[in-house]
Design a protein that fits this description.
Blueprint (H helix, E strand, L loop, with lengths): L25 E5 L6 H11 L3 E6 L2 H8 L7 E4 L5 H9 L4 E6 L14 H7 L1 H13 L3 E10 L12 H20 L4 E7 L9 H14 L8 H13 L7 E4 L3 H4 L1
Parallel strand pairs: 1-2, 1-4, 2-3, 4-5, 5-6, 6-7
Helix pairs in contact: 1-8, 3-5, 5-6
Amino acid sequence: MPSSSRRSDHARVGPGHPLDRLDAKRVLVVGASGHGTGAAVAALAQRRGADVILAARSARGLDAAEQLLSAPVKRVELDMTDADAVQAAISALDELDHVAITADPGQPGPFLEQPLAGAHDKFGKFWGTFHVARAAAPQLCEGGSLVFTSSVAAEAPAERGAVLSAVNAAINGLTIALARELAPVRVNAVAPGYMGSEGMPPAALLDAERWAQETLPVGRLTWPEETAAAIVFLMTQPTMTGVILTIDGGLRVAR
Protein backbone atom coordinates (compact mmCIF):
# COMPACT_ATOMS: atom_id res chain seq x y z
CA MET A 1 0.00 0.00 0.00
CA PRO A 2 1.63 3.31 -1.05
CA SER A 3 1.92 6.00 1.60
CA SER A 4 3.26 9.53 1.86
CA SER A 5 6.94 10.15 2.38
CA ARG A 6 6.18 12.39 5.37
CA ARG A 7 7.28 10.35 8.37
CA SER A 8 4.84 9.87 11.22
CA ASP A 9 5.90 9.86 14.87
CA HIS A 10 3.93 6.62 15.15
CA ALA A 11 6.36 4.81 12.90
CA ARG A 12 8.58 4.18 15.88
CA VAL A 13 7.49 4.68 19.48
CA GLY A 14 10.10 4.99 22.18
CA PRO A 15 10.00 5.38 25.95
CA GLY A 16 8.12 8.45 27.09
CA HIS A 17 6.33 8.90 23.76
CA PRO A 18 2.92 10.53 24.46
CA LEU A 19 0.62 8.02 22.80
CA ASP A 20 -2.50 10.10 23.34
CA ARG A 21 -1.20 13.15 21.43
CA LEU A 22 -2.00 14.14 17.85
CA ASP A 23 0.34 17.10 17.58
CA ALA A 24 0.52 18.46 14.02
CA LYS A 25 -1.47 15.51 12.65
CA ARG A 26 -4.05 16.24 9.95
CA VAL A 27 -7.31 14.62 10.99
CA LEU A 28 -10.33 14.52 8.66
CA VAL A 29 -13.68 13.92 10.36
CA VAL A 30 -16.46 12.96 7.95
CA GLY A 31 -19.96 13.28 9.38
CA ALA A 32 -19.06 16.19 11.68
CA SER A 33 -22.55 17.63 11.83
CA GLY A 34 -24.38 19.10 14.80
CA HIS A 35 -23.25 18.13 18.29
CA GLY A 36 -22.97 14.38 17.67
CA THR A 37 -20.07 11.96 17.54
CA GLY A 38 -18.26 13.58 14.61
CA ALA A 39 -18.20 16.99 16.27
CA ALA A 40 -17.00 15.39 19.51
CA VAL A 41 -14.18 13.59 17.63
CA ALA A 42 -13.12 16.87 16.04
CA ALA A 43 -13.13 18.71 19.38
CA LEU A 44 -11.12 16.00 21.15
CA ALA A 45 -8.61 15.65 18.30
CA GLN A 46 -8.10 19.40 18.31
CA ARG A 47 -7.48 19.39 22.06
CA ARG A 48 -4.88 16.66 21.48
CA GLY A 49 -3.03 18.94 19.05
CA ALA A 50 -4.46 17.91 15.67
CA ASP A 51 -5.07 20.08 12.64
CA VAL A 52 -8.73 19.17 12.10
CA ILE A 53 -10.75 19.20 8.90
CA LEU A 54 -14.54 18.94 9.17
CA ALA A 55 -16.68 17.36 6.44
CA ALA A 56 -20.47 17.11 6.46
CA ARG A 57 -23.37 17.37 4.08
CA SER A 58 -24.61 20.85 5.07
CA ALA A 59 -23.15 24.19 6.09
CA ARG A 60 -25.68 24.33 8.92
CA GLY A 61 -24.41 21.05 10.36
CA LEU A 62 -20.82 22.22 10.05
CA ASP A 63 -21.69 25.49 11.80
CA ALA A 64 -23.12 23.57 14.75
CA ALA A 65 -20.14 21.22 14.93
CA GLU A 66 -17.67 24.10 14.86
CA GLN A 67 -19.27 25.55 17.99
CA LEU A 68 -17.59 22.75 19.96
CA LEU A 69 -14.12 23.67 18.71
CA SER A 70 -11.69 26.07 20.33
CA ALA A 71 -10.13 27.31 17.06
CA PRO A 72 -11.25 27.71 13.43
CA VAL A 73 -10.77 24.72 11.13
CA LYS A 74 -10.97 23.91 7.44
CA ARG A 75 -14.50 22.84 6.40
CA VAL A 76 -15.76 20.80 3.46
CA GLU A 77 -19.40 20.36 2.44
CA LEU A 78 -19.55 16.75 1.31
CA ASP A 79 -22.17 14.11 0.60
CA MET A 80 -20.21 10.92 1.22
CA THR A 81 -22.65 8.85 -0.84
CA ASP A 82 -21.49 10.74 -3.97
CA ALA A 83 -18.34 8.85 -4.96
CA ASP A 84 -17.10 11.43 -7.48
CA ALA A 85 -17.60 14.32 -5.06
CA VAL A 86 -15.80 12.43 -2.31
CA GLN A 87 -12.84 11.67 -4.58
CA ALA A 88 -12.54 15.28 -5.71
CA ALA A 89 -12.88 16.78 -2.23
CA ILE A 90 -10.43 14.45 -0.51
CA SER A 91 -7.87 14.65 -3.32
CA ALA A 92 -7.82 18.42 -2.79
CA LEU A 93 -6.81 17.97 0.86
CA ASP A 94 -3.36 16.50 0.10
CA GLU A 95 -1.72 14.52 2.91
CA LEU A 96 -3.76 13.20 5.84
CA ASP A 97 -2.79 11.33 8.99
CA HIS A 98 -6.12 10.02 10.25
CA VAL A 99 -9.67 9.84 8.92
CA ALA A 100 -12.74 9.21 11.07
CA ILE A 101 -16.12 8.44 9.51
CA THR A 102 -19.09 8.92 11.83
CA ALA A 103 -22.22 8.54 9.71
CA ASP A 104 -25.57 7.44 11.18
CA PRO A 105 -27.79 5.18 9.02
CA GLY A 106 -31.07 6.14 10.72
CA GLN A 107 -33.79 4.29 12.57
CA PRO A 108 -34.86 0.61 12.46
CA GLY A 109 -37.78 -0.49 10.35
CA PRO A 110 -39.82 -3.71 9.99
CA PHE A 111 -38.25 -6.15 7.54
CA LEU A 112 -41.44 -7.15 5.72
CA GLU A 113 -43.12 -3.73 5.63
CA GLN A 114 -40.21 -1.35 5.28
CA PRO A 115 -40.16 0.33 1.83
CA LEU A 116 -37.32 -1.01 -0.28
CA ALA A 117 -36.13 2.49 -1.07
CA GLY A 118 -35.72 3.20 2.63
CA ALA A 119 -33.83 -0.05 3.18
CA HIS A 120 -31.50 0.74 0.27
CA ASP A 121 -30.91 4.26 1.59
CA LYS A 122 -29.65 2.87 4.90
CA PHE A 123 -26.78 1.24 3.01
CA GLY A 124 -25.60 4.76 2.25
CA LYS A 125 -23.63 4.46 5.50
CA PHE A 126 -21.70 1.50 4.08
CA TRP A 127 -21.13 2.98 0.64
CA GLY A 128 -20.20 6.35 2.09
CA THR A 129 -17.62 4.66 4.31
CA PHE A 130 -16.34 2.75 1.27
CA HIS A 131 -16.05 5.93 -0.83
CA VAL A 132 -14.19 7.90 1.84
CA ALA A 133 -11.80 5.03 2.62
CA ARG A 134 -11.01 4.50 -1.06
CA ALA A 135 -10.34 8.20 -1.68
CA ALA A 136 -8.36 8.80 1.53
CA ALA A 137 -6.18 5.69 1.80
CA PRO A 138 -3.61 6.75 -0.85
CA GLN A 139 -3.16 10.10 0.91
CA LEU A 140 -2.46 8.76 4.39
CA CYS A 141 0.98 9.38 5.82
CA GLU A 142 3.12 6.70 7.41
CA GLY A 143 1.48 5.65 10.67
CA GLY A 144 -1.92 6.81 9.40
CA SER A 145 -5.28 5.24 10.04
CA LEU A 146 -8.92 4.99 9.05
CA VAL A 147 -11.52 4.68 11.81
CA PHE A 148 -15.05 3.69 10.83
CA THR A 149 -18.21 3.85 12.92
CA SER A 150 -20.13 0.60 13.10
CA SER A 151 -22.67 -0.36 15.77
CA VAL A 152 -23.34 -3.10 18.29
CA ALA A 153 -26.42 -3.76 16.12
CA ALA A 154 -24.14 -5.90 13.93
CA GLU A 155 -24.03 -8.44 16.77
CA ALA A 156 -27.06 -7.54 18.87
CA PRO A 157 -29.82 -6.39 16.48
CA ALA A 158 -32.49 -4.06 17.76
CA GLU A 159 -36.12 -5.04 17.35
CA ARG A 160 -37.01 -4.52 13.69
CA GLY A 161 -33.34 -3.82 13.02
CA ALA A 162 -32.45 -6.37 10.33
CA VAL A 163 -31.29 -3.78 7.80
CA LEU A 164 -29.25 -1.81 10.32
CA SER A 165 -27.68 -5.05 11.51
CA ALA A 166 -26.70 -5.90 7.94
CA VAL A 167 -25.29 -2.41 7.25
CA ASN A 168 -23.07 -2.46 10.32
CA ALA A 169 -22.00 -6.07 9.78
CA ALA A 170 -20.87 -5.00 6.30
CA ILE A 171 -18.79 -2.19 7.82
CA ASN A 172 -17.22 -4.64 10.28
CA GLY A 173 -16.29 -6.91 7.40
CA LEU A 174 -14.85 -4.01 5.43
CA THR A 175 -12.78 -2.99 8.45
CA ILE A 176 -11.16 -6.38 8.86
CA ALA A 177 -10.55 -6.89 5.12
CA LEU A 178 -9.02 -3.44 4.61
CA ALA A 179 -6.78 -3.81 7.66
CA ARG A 180 -5.06 -6.56 5.70
CA GLU A 181 -5.28 -5.11 2.21
CA LEU A 182 -4.25 -1.53 3.01
CA ALA A 183 -1.47 -2.35 5.50
CA PRO A 184 0.56 -0.62 6.82
CA VAL A 185 -2.35 1.81 6.96
CA ARG A 186 -4.32 0.83 10.05
CA VAL A 187 -8.08 0.30 9.74
CA ASN A 188 -10.33 0.00 12.78
CA ALA A 189 -13.94 0.61 13.77
CA VAL A 190 -15.83 1.69 16.86
CA ALA A 191 -19.17 -0.03 17.50
CA PRO A 192 -21.21 1.98 20.00
CA GLY A 193 -24.40 0.79 21.63
CA TYR A 194 -27.45 2.94 22.29
CA MET A 195 -26.31 6.54 22.56
CA GLY A 196 -27.82 9.50 24.29
CA SER A 197 -27.79 12.88 22.62
CA GLU A 198 -28.58 16.46 23.52
CA GLY A 199 -30.68 16.56 20.37
CA MET A 200 -33.10 13.85 21.55
CA PRO A 201 -36.59 14.95 22.66
CA PRO A 202 -36.62 15.04 26.48
CA ALA A 203 -39.27 12.32 26.78
CA ALA A 204 -37.37 9.99 24.42
CA LEU A 205 -34.11 10.60 26.29
CA LEU A 206 -35.81 9.86 29.62
CA ASP A 207 -37.20 6.59 28.23
CA ALA A 208 -33.77 5.64 26.86
CA GLU A 209 -32.07 6.39 30.17
CA ARG A 210 -34.65 4.35 32.05
CA TRP A 211 -34.15 1.44 29.65
CA ALA A 212 -30.37 1.64 30.12
CA GLN A 213 -30.69 1.66 33.91
CA GLU A 214 -32.86 -1.46 33.78
CA THR A 215 -31.05 -3.35 31.02
CA LEU A 216 -27.36 -2.54 30.74
CA PRO A 217 -24.74 -3.77 33.21
CA VAL A 218 -23.27 -0.25 33.39
CA GLY A 219 -26.72 1.22 33.97
CA ARG A 220 -26.33 4.13 31.57
CA LEU A 221 -26.28 5.15 27.93
CA THR A 222 -23.15 5.86 25.89
CA TRP A 223 -22.68 9.52 24.95
CA PRO A 224 -21.03 11.01 21.85
CA GLU A 225 -17.98 12.21 23.79
CA GLU A 226 -17.33 8.63 24.94
CA THR A 227 -17.60 7.25 21.42
CA ALA A 228 -15.29 10.04 20.27
CA ALA A 229 -12.73 9.07 22.92
CA ALA A 230 -12.72 5.51 21.56
CA ILE A 231 -12.22 6.76 18.00
CA VAL A 232 -9.29 9.00 18.96
CA PHE A 233 -7.83 6.16 21.04
CA LEU A 234 -7.71 4.00 17.89
CA MET A 235 -5.99 6.79 15.98
CA THR A 236 -3.22 6.99 18.55
CA GLN A 237 -2.51 3.27 19.10
CA PRO A 238 0.17 2.34 16.55
CA THR A 239 -0.21 -1.45 16.71
CA MET A 240 -4.00 -1.76 16.66
CA THR A 241 -5.57 -2.67 13.33
CA GLY A 242 -8.49 -4.81 12.23
CA VAL A 243 -10.19 -4.08 15.58
CA ILE A 244 -13.92 -3.62 16.14
CA LEU A 245 -13.96 -1.76 19.46
CA THR A 246 -17.39 -2.23 21.00
CA ILE A 247 -18.60 0.25 23.63
CA ASP A 248 -22.13 -0.94 24.27
CA GLY A 249 -22.55 -0.64 28.04
CA GLY A 250 -22.50 -4.42 28.26
CA LEU A 251 -25.52 -5.01 26.01
CA ARG A 252 -24.08 -8.14 24.45
CA VAL A 253 -23.49 -9.80 27.80
CA ALA A 254 -26.87 -8.68 29.15
CA ARG A 255 -28.80 -10.62 26.51
